[in-house]
Amino acid sequence: MQGKIIDKKEIAKATLQVTFEIPDEQFTFKPGQYAFITLVTPPYPDERSNKRHFSIVNSPNQKHIITIATRIRDSGFKKSLQELPNNSLVEIGPIAGGFILPSENNRPLVFIAGGIGITPFISMLSYIKEEHLPYQITLIYSNRDQSSAAYVKELQELARTLPNFRLILTMTEDTSWVGENRRVDVQLIKDYTKNLKNPLYFVVGPPAMVDAIQKTLLEAGVNPENINIENFTGY
Ligand SMILES: Cc1cc2nc3c(=O)[nH]c(=O)nc-3n(C[C@H](O)[C@H](O)[C@H](O)COP(=O)(O)OP(=O)(O)OC[C@H]3O[C@@H](n4cnc5c(N)ncnc54)[C@H](O)[C@@H]3O)c2cc1C
Q1: Check: CATH 1.10.10.10 for 2-96?
Q2: Which of 46, 79, 84, 105 could form a disulfide with 88 if both were Cys (CB 3.0 to 4.6 A apart)?
Q3: What is the pTM of this model?
Q4: Can you give the pLDDT at residue 47?
Q5: Measured from the CB, is residue 172 less than 6 Å from ligand 1?
Q6: Whose CA is nearest to atom 6 of ligand 1?
């Protein structure tokens, strides 16, 4: 389906948020899903094509728009996305992905995000707040430093207003940060979850980080069925 860029802004260091308008009445998605974005008139060539997939950041209750967030890089695709003016046409779709909220909401959920891997969780948490869904959630959000951490203010506001939502921020390379600074491993997860084996885990980020956390949870005896992952290939 056709769409167009309606807004772009830098929301953290080397991190661009882009919003697309989609006139199609049928357009919808589930929180946590991703969309393929194809640039119709990219100013720069890219050997890996002018198409990438991105988790959708906004809630599906916001009709006719998709917001994504991405790290600015020197690929032809990213340079084009950065330079294309508002009203530039894009192709959106397909919408895909099984990384969505469980139908059962009686088990604690542990969300673990590495860097830009935060994107699907913003959609999920916004939707949970809007629909007053009784999920019990702990979000462990790891970044190198505060300047490259996207959506921190929004998450801190949600932590103040969304019942049963706890936010754990860890900055692993920021000496000015007064707070958690450990890398995410099983000890850190244990420190913030009562019973390691009970929650459903949702882990998103660069493949190396996701693999390491999945491995550490499995070694700690967590049932593989309780671990949902989304690998942000390309990082
Ligand atoms: C389900 C899903 C959701 C995603 N959501 C987001 C999001 O919300 N925000 C975001 O920034 N990114 C997201 N990504 C990643 C995104 O699609 C891009 O791959 C990423 O942004 C890097 O794009 P690039 O143009 O900067 O780098 P590229 O030039 O595309 O890639 C950088 C390097 O990674 C290598 N690479 C890329 N893809 C693969 C692959 N599949 N396998 C092996 N090597 C690869 C390339 O060869 C290159 O060396 C998502 C990916 C998936 C699978």
Answers
A1: no
A2: 84
A3: 0.96
A4: 95
A5: no
A6: 54
